[in-house]
Amino acid sequence: MSQPSVDSTPQKKRSGSRSSATNFASDCTDQWSLRMDDARKEREYRRFDFDDIARCALPKNSTLRDLVDKRTKEISHRLDDILVERSQDPETPALVRQAANECRKWLRGELISKNSSRYEKVIYPAHAALIRCIAGHLDPEPTSAGGTDEAKRVLLPYASDLKPTGSDKRIRIDGALRSCADASSADDELRPDYRDIVLVAEAKWRREQDKAYDQLIRYTRQVYANQPNRRFAWGVTICATLVRVILFENDRMVSSKDMDVTTSTGLAAYIKFIVSLCFCEEHQLGYDPSMTWCSENEYWIIKCPGRTPDNDDEQPATYYARDPVFVADHLFGRHTRGFYASDDPELVDQPDTFIKDAWPHAERGSEDTSRDELAILQDIVQQLKTRGIDTTGYVRPVRGGTVRLDDDHDDNTDTVLDPVVGDIEAAHPQMGTIAENDETDAGALATKLAAGRGKDDEACAIDDSSWVEVIPYRVHRRLALKPIGKPLYALSSPYELIIVLADAMTAHSKILNLCGYLHRDISTNNILAIEVDGRVRGVLIDFDCAIKVGSQRRVRAERTGTPPFMSINNLRNSSVERSELDDWESLLYVVCWLGVYGVSGANQSKYQADIERKCRTDKNYKPPLYAWECGTFEEVARAKKENLEDMGTFTGSVLNHFQREDGYAMLKSLARRLHKRLLFNSHLDNKYMGMVKVYCGGDDSDESDDDTSKSTVVFVDPFAKRLEQKARDQINKDLMKTMAHYKAAAELRDGLNASDAASNPKRFLLVCGSGQTQTKASENSSLNDLICAVVDPSVTQLGEANSTNTVLFVKAERSGRQDLAYCQLIHDTRSLYADQPNRRFAWGVTICATLVRVILFENDRMVSSKDMDVTTSTGLAAYIKFIVSLCFCEEHQLGYDPSMTWCSENKYWIIKCPGRTPDNDDEQPATYYARDPVFVADHLFGRHTRGFYASDDPELVDQPDTFIKDAWPHAERGSEDTSRDELAILQDIVQQLKTRGIDTTGYVRPVRGGTVRLDDDHDDNTDTVLDPVVGDIEAAHPQMGTIAENDETDAGALATKLAAGCGKDDEACAIDDSSRVEVIPYRVHRRLALKPIGKPLYALSSPYELIIVLADAMTAHSKILNLCGYLHRDISTNNILAIEVDGRVRGVLIDFDCAIKVGSQRRVRAERTGTPPFMSINNLRNSSVERSELDDWESLLYVVCWLGVYGVSEEEQSSYQADIEKKCRTNKYYKPPLYAWECGTFEEVADSKERCLTGLERFTSSVLNHFKTEPGYDMLKELAHELCQWLLFNMELDRAYRGVVKVENFRHRRPGTRVNTNTTIVEDPFVKRLEKDARDKINDDLAEVMDLYKRAAVTALYGSCQ
User: Fold this and answer.
1) Which among 497, 506, 537 has a CA at the least distance from the CA of 736?
2) Going by C-beta distance under 8 Å and a sequence separation of 6 or more, which residues neighbour residue 985?
3) What burial class does residue 1248 get, using C-beta atoms within 10 Å of its C-beta: 0-12 exposed, 13-18 middle, 19+ buried?
4) Per-residue b/e over 1085-1116, b at no fewer than 16 CB within 10 Å?
């Protein structure tokens, strides 16, 4: 048997080759769209039985057919002897001998197993042994090489139950056969390779035939994806001893009858099929003889038919191409492939021609060229040239036509199924042929055929009708086209995509209006990008579905296109005529598809990985746009209709899933504008808008839903109304204007990106439309403009309001309402801090009539400019200068942290952590990688503490082991004092604990940290934020001076107001109230890497776990105070984390920003620190009473109450928040429990807490009665009651030590005094409790309470307190 030099079997694909952008979507959706239930749909809707389908493999030559019969008889007669010989031959490998024995049992029906999966694995080697026996018998004798009785090939099995090479899924196949020159090539350990597989065999238990079909469908799809020269495919199912042969052609899977290998007839039939495959021609195996693989040069040799624009009868031309750029990775459909090719083999890597290979529908025996793509393209180019239009941006045919198998036969459905096509139709008389003009909707089978179909599947181009072809007729056509273009996934940015789409739709419009052709298949595969004069341009391709239209530019209803991008009318195959509006709707779906999945190949691959990870963790997860490609036509149409119903739904279900990288804001805005102009065009009446039939009264002539009704009620279909000439022209005009507008913006941005960066601005600022602004931080919304640093300023109102990519907010009000503008701007700017973890400070703009102010929000102040009147040249110039400055300035001057950057490709933050470690104060910064923060800075003023779970290995970003804390604590300018340096404090604590031999597992341990640096010369602090105006600000406010640290008067009204409304992480309150307050308090930007990594309290699942965690935290608090001499001073819900040790929950106390060294008395001078809802009453009042651990115990009491009311877990807190919001909407005067603990001035919060704690009964009614009633909260309520009692009303102490209100004590006159009256002494219980004996007693009691409740909680959780 001679070995050909040119191999027509599939090539070894080079690394890096990939499918098209939409084919990608199929790859990434394999996790759901090709599960067994979807394969089942394909099997149910596409399969039918035909007993003699194996005849398609019989050689055409009668002599060879006789030889097949002869070899079949010989093998059938000698098979058992051959198997016995192999099983007993000592030179045969043991596995082969065992397989021969298993094969004999299988053929006798003795291969039995109670376990079906085990049974399958026993069948694998048995079937492989049978195939090897056939190959061994057909192996030619050395003397007969080249003889006429020689088989063209032998089929040999691969190793079974392995994942094949070339698969895009983690699936194993039971068995597969490959083509070899002779049996000596047998290799029992060879891994399957989809690029060389001739057919796949699937084995199952006897009653699992349907399951075998389903899995075979999945595997055979991979054969098409990996073999560009595949015309059709064979498959085999083995259910116990019953074998079936399946032929997969473009629209159907045709299955043979059962062949029972335990019978001589069934065994002979199967052997004959295998022998036929060894003797038949290559095209009968399913390969295309006009496309061959040259293994020596590693390129495809492609014959392209000879019809050219000048001659209809030229000889085929030869082209040379590497791997295809578009692959047919779906089992059914047109199987369109695309190659970059050259007619010179030396220039194969410099291609200039695009080869398109596809199987479109056609009409048997018809000479009509109205559906012939080559004829359509030739007509379009000719008409454009006649009108003097440059055809550079249009696809131009070079040659093409129908592929021929040989000189006498075209390649089509009949040659695939020859000689059985007539017998198949005769065997299914109930199915008839296509009634092409029948537009009724009775074609249920044709509708079902489309279920689960992919993006290149055009079986849908058949009309639904009451009669459907058994095997729809297709022809194999190949075209050579110019110019050569790149697929959309090769584009580098959304800007390029917008340019390409705009060019494609411009070409679409000209082809329709000037040449009279409607495209009808706008999709991601049918638009390519080319380069003209160094600029990207778009080309519209694939006119398979195009049709000639009349002057009305409308055609009869017919379903065509690619399902994910088909219009709703098209999917439903409604009676509404098709027009260019359907193609515009398809463009909208293309924009949405690429906005969600990503434009570039890198974005798509990353999105694919994310989706696959989510699918593995949640089997019920459905990705965005899943319903656009899975299901029947009607189901896809319903999903699209729901998504596009109104702008709010469209935004929530589609636009909010767009990618966040640069450029996608413009793409999202384009989608919004297309949606509005197409479906809700403001230039038209309401009856033209939307997708639902609307009531228009009785005067309208449109037909009603009920033709028999005598009522005058009339419903109008907006799809039909939009077809009216005037309405359609207006919509088309608006859509073309929209595309031109966005193309201009994208070209400007794209061109500036490519030009000299030194002379251009670093960014452009864009106003993103006024309207409802949605933020992550809050579901509340407000009317305002956003300014985003994403595109150029020439495009107005372009983009969606989204605070994740916003530079600043703009708030407009009427004249004289500056304060209201400030308030609303404060509310909106808060979301920037919550949604942008790298935000250092923020800008804002207010506009009151013609007066503009610029505001800078730093950690403690909002600094406003003077009024800039834009009606004056000076004011206008000043505001323009500010905007231009933002375009040219550095990133950190916009308010961003250069040491924290977002990696859009991998979707994680890259964080530089300063180099101070416990062993070295001068190391280089270390790099950490983290997903979105677990703690966000969701308040406008304060420390802006953020927390990340991070890893120093980017590969382990989802397995973090380090906690990164990023904050802006107060500091003293120029001071080297480290007593307030959290890193130094933590290092000292850990060192002291280790010295005393205490296990530090339950304590936070520093890895590294320090002050964040903007660059090598500048630390990040308040001065660098306000540089160069910090000195000028202080000079402009001489009345405010600097902090008088020991002045404890209560005249600091400004600092008090600043703290009003502060949240849990807001430490503006760490400034002393004084008669003189810093204009801009000084802060430094510090970042720490800490271990262990812990969960926030809201991640706990029950109050029992909370009690354990709080007890551990307070135990650590006590040891740190008594052994190390540090008082924490900021007990809050954010500053206690949960960790797991030996399978049990433990608590860790963190955040030592406010900690301070104390002396032997364990008391420190009065200073306000902490988090307002949890600050002690003395702390809030900033009283002169010294602070001690009792203040922290009081904070713990507030933490318990807070979580008892709001809930422990995140789900409970969300539910509570929803209830509160509902009550607030129905009653504007409603105030939730604990509302006054976080809203108001420090003094107001202190008053509220004092009222709640005036007595245990009052505490119960105002706080404890609002605790949740779920299991565990009763224990939490008891704990709160005990803490309050032993902290504030300790019955073992005198009355003077109890309560929160100063009490009057009457004392009699001392003997010898002159005044003979009694004296009244007012005693403060807070002061009394500071006495050492009282304090020690209270501490002991509180520690005992926590220990008691911890034991009870451990018992409730684990059944034992050990």
Assistant:
1) 506
2) 978, 979, 1126, 1152, 1155
3) buried
4) bbbbbbebbbbebbebebbbbbbbbbbbbbbb
Residue 891 · residue 840 · CB < 8 Å: no
Strand-strand pairing, 477-482 and 291-294: unpaired
Q: How many CA atoms lie within 13 A of 947 on its CB side?
A: 17
CB distance 362 to 475 below 8 Å? yes
Average pLDDT over residues 1236-1246: 87
d(CA 1318, CA 700): 98
- Report phi then psi at 12, rounded to 5: -85, 110
Q: Amino acid letter at 773?
A: T
Residue 484, Cβ density class (10 Å: 0-12 exposed, 13-18 middle, ≥19 buried): buried
d(CA 315, CA 821): 77
Looking only at the bridges linking them, the beta strands covering 233-239 and 842-848 are: unpaired
Distance (Å, whole) CA 436 – CA 429:
18
What is the sign of the dihedral through the CA atoms of 396, 401, 403 and 406? negative
Cβ neighbours, 10 Å, residue 635: 14
Confidence band (pLDDT; 50, 70, 90) for 1034?
Answer: low
Encode pLDDT of 578-630 as tens digits: 889 999 999 999 999 999 999 988 888 888 888 878 887 887 888 888 888 77
Q: C-alpha distances in angstroms, 89 versus 94, 95, 138, 614?
A: 9, 12, 20, 52
Helices 725-754, 494-510: crossing angle, 10 deg rounding: 140
**Residue 790 to residue 625: CA distance in whole angstroms:** 26
Sign of the Cα pseudo-torsion (288, 290, 294, 297, in order): negative
pLDDT per position as a tens digit, 685-744 = 777 788 776 655 554 444 444 444 444 556 677 888 888 888 888 899 999 989 988 888
How are beta strands 253-255 and 47-49 bridged, if at all?
A: parallel
CB-CB contact of 857 with 842 (8 Å): yes
Helices (H), 658-791: 664-679, 718-721, 725-754
Q: Which of 734, 809, 798, 727 is CA-nearest to residue 766?
A: 798
CB 59 within 8 A of CB 279: yes
Say what angle helices 264-279 and 62-88 make with each other, to 10 degrees: 120
Q: What does residue 828 show for φ and ψ, rounded to 5 degrees?
A: -75, -35
1299: left (phi over 0), alpha (psi -120 to 50) or beta: left
Radius of gyration of the chain (CA): 39
Query: Which helix (DSSP H) or strand (DSSP E) does residue 97 occupy?
Result: helix 94-107
Quickly list H helices, 1152-1255. Answer: 1177-1181, 1189-1206, 1210-1226, 1242-1252
pTM passes above 0.85: no
Whether the Cβ atoms of residue 942 and residue 960 lie closer than 8 Å to each other: no
Are 276 and 68 a contacting pair, CB within 8 Å? yes
Mean predicted confidence (pLDDT) in 1269-1273:
91
Q: How far apart are CA 41 and CA 53, in angstroms?
A: 22
Reduced to 3 states, what is the DSSP secondary structure of residue 1081?
Answer: coil
Other residues' Cβ atoms within 10 Å of the Cβ of residue 428: 15
d(CA 589, CA 608): 19
State how far the Cα of 946 lies from the Cα of 245, in Å rounded to an integer.
63
Token pair listed for 346:
């030396």
**1294 exposure class (CB count in 10 Å sphere: 0-12, 13-18, 19+):** exposed
Contacts of 1312 (CB under 8 A, 6+ apart): none
Burial class (CB in 10 A: 0-12, 13-18, 19+), 661: buried
Which H/E stretch holds residue 203?
A: strand 197-204
